[in-house]
Amino acid sequence: DVKVTQSSRYLVKRTGEKVFLECVQDMDHENMFWYRQDPGLGLRLIYFSYDVKMKEKGDIPEGYSVSREKKERFSLILESASTNQTSMYLCASSLMGAGVNEQFFGPGTRLTVL
Amino acid sequence: SQQGEEDPQALSIQEGENATMNCSYKTSINNLQWYRQNSGRGLVHLILIRSNEREKHSGRLRVTLDTSKKSSSLLITASRAADTASYFCATVNQAGTALIFGKGTTLSVSS
Question: How would residue B1 be classed by pLDDT, with cut points 50, 70 and 90?
Answer without folding.
Answer: very low
